[in-house]
Amino acid sequence: MKLELFEPAMCCPTGLCGPSIDPELTRIATIHYVLKQRGFDVARYNLASEPNRFVENVNVQAEIANGLEMLPLTVVDGKIVKRGAYLTDEEIAELTGLPVDAFAKKDGEKPKVRISLKK
CA 10, 14, 19, 23: dihedral to nearest 10 degrees? Predict the structure, then answer.
């Protein structure tokens, strides 16, 4: 399964910069990281930094011809599965077969992600 996320123009590729961070973007960044760590083929494209990705995908190009309010667009295996909003934790769990608690907050806590630093 290939999951692609086409996002509106943001100041940086993740949108996690500036004086106020959108919690929805933090949630999506966490899910993206967890899915990549578990071997899923996932990609995020920002209209400001990767406009060619939007032009190369005929379906995405057709959608945004109707207006940028269609963004974010979620594409799974070439098919648009959601327009104008990010997938919910439950929708992502259903698509991936992972339990929601693999990437969702539990009792107000963020999921724990272990990283290792190589020397």
Answer: 110
Query: Over the chain (119 residues), what is each successive 10-residue block's mean pLDDT?
Result: 93 61 85 92 94 95 92 96 95 93 64 55
Q: Is there a cis peptide before residue 99, judged by omega within 30 degrees of 0?
A: no
- Sort strands 41-46 and 73-76 into parallel, antiparallel or unpaired: unpaired
Query: What is the rounded CA–CA span in Å between residue 64 and residue 110?
Result: 33
Q: What is the pLDDT of residue 90?
A: 93
Question: What ranges in 1-119 are assigned the alpha helix state H?
Answer: 23-37, 51-56, 58-64, 89-96
- What is d(CA 47, CA 49) in angstroms, rounded to the nearest whole number? 6
